[in-house]
Design goal:
With 302 residues, the protein is of the alpha/beta class. The protein has 3 domains: 164 residues, no CATH class; 58 residues; 58 residues, Homeodomain-like (Arc Repressor Mutant, subunit A, Orthogonal Bundle). Helix content is 55%, strand content 13%. It contains 14 helices and 7 strands. The N terminus is likely disordered.
Length: 302
């Protein structure tokens, strides 16, 4: 696999590492010409070992070439079980309205009961023979984490933002043209670090830390940035205020609990970070146009 070595791509590597730590998934970019871009830390050891075997490397590339073709035919994402029975999701990276590359996320094993929900292509069982015959490869394979479809589904919104908004701007030709050594190039990278990286990290934090309720003041202190600057980032990148964006996240956190748990509404409010139950009720009704109790009744009756 090729690796980013230019200092200008340090932001990309740091973002990759951040996402891997938070999700446990491998992540890398593949160009339309099958050039691979990744930081060493973000692909599991099995993935890297495969590329030390020419026949397995070709199998891996053939499978991902097939996935790229599926993506280029209009799919917004392609979740599938590929070579070695490993689950991946392919996201198109669109720059200037053209498909320029593909973001691959996953490289994980699935529970047997979840495999029926994923597309199985002609490569799904390929490579399993090699694993059984190669002890070292098998040991690495067994260390690959097992995910449920539901666990991966919870990460989809984050991954979609990453692939559709952040990566395309990082890969914009104006920013990654290594032949330009001008100060404006450095300024662009500085701007990139203080915007794309920050908004990505904040978005990840808000979506994955369900038990805490963040304010702009909390984020300002944690990221050492003005709360007004952070507020403007949300309006620029998500087209809405921080409050509206975060309210939607919190309501999304509450829905599975309202549907499936035996917790009462107050307990659910506290479980997702609200200290004031009435405030949770108010935001829920404003967003869902019904109270939490009314929402539960619709689930029961349906």
């Amino acid at each position: 696999m090729g690796e980013f070595k230019e200092n200008s791509l340090a932001i990309w590597e740091e973002m990759q590492s951040e996402l891997v730590k938070l999700t446990g998934l491998s992540i890398y970019i593949v160009s339309n010409t099958l050039q691979y871009f990744y930081s060493k830390e973000v692909c599991n050891k099995f993935c890297r070992e495969v590329f030390n075997h020419k026949s397995l490397e070709n199998l891996w590339k053939d499978e991902e070439s097939y996935a790229i073709k599926r993506i280029r035919h209009g799919k917004s994402k392609y979740p599938y079980i590929g070579a070695f029975g490993l689950a991946k999701i392919a996201f198109p990276i669109i720059i200037n309205e053209q498909h320029q590359a593909t973001l691959f996320v996953g490289v994980v094993r699935l529970k047997e009961c979840d495999k029926m929900f994923w597309d199985k292509n002609k490569f799904s069982d390929a490579g399993l023979y090699y694993i059984q015959e190669n002890t070292a490869l098998k040991n690495l394979y067994l260390k690959i984490p097992i995910f449920t479809t539901e666990e991966i589904r919870k990460l989809l919104k984050i991954l979609k933002i990453f692939s559709s908004q952040i990566v395309p701007k990082l890969l914009d030709e104006r920013l990654l043209n290594h032949s330009k050594k001008s100060s404006s190039f450095k300024n662009n990278l500085d701007d990139l670090e203080t915007t794309k990286e920050v908004i990505f990290r904040i978005s990840i934090r808000l979506k994955l830390e369900t038990k805490k309720y963040y304010t702009l003041e909390d984020l300002s202190e944690e990221f050492n940035l003005s709360k007004y600057y952070i507020s403007n980032l949300f309006k620029e990148y998500f087209g809405m205020s921080f409050k509206k964006y975060y309210t939607k996240i919190k309501i999304d956190h509450s829905l599975p609990l309202l549907k499936n748990s035996k917790l009462n509404n107050s307990q659910i409010a506290f479980a997702i970070g609200f200290k004031n139950t009435n405030y949770f009720y108010t935001l829920f009704k404003k967003t869902m146009h019904c109270t939490p109790t009314e929402f539960r009744k619709t689930i029961t009756y349906s």
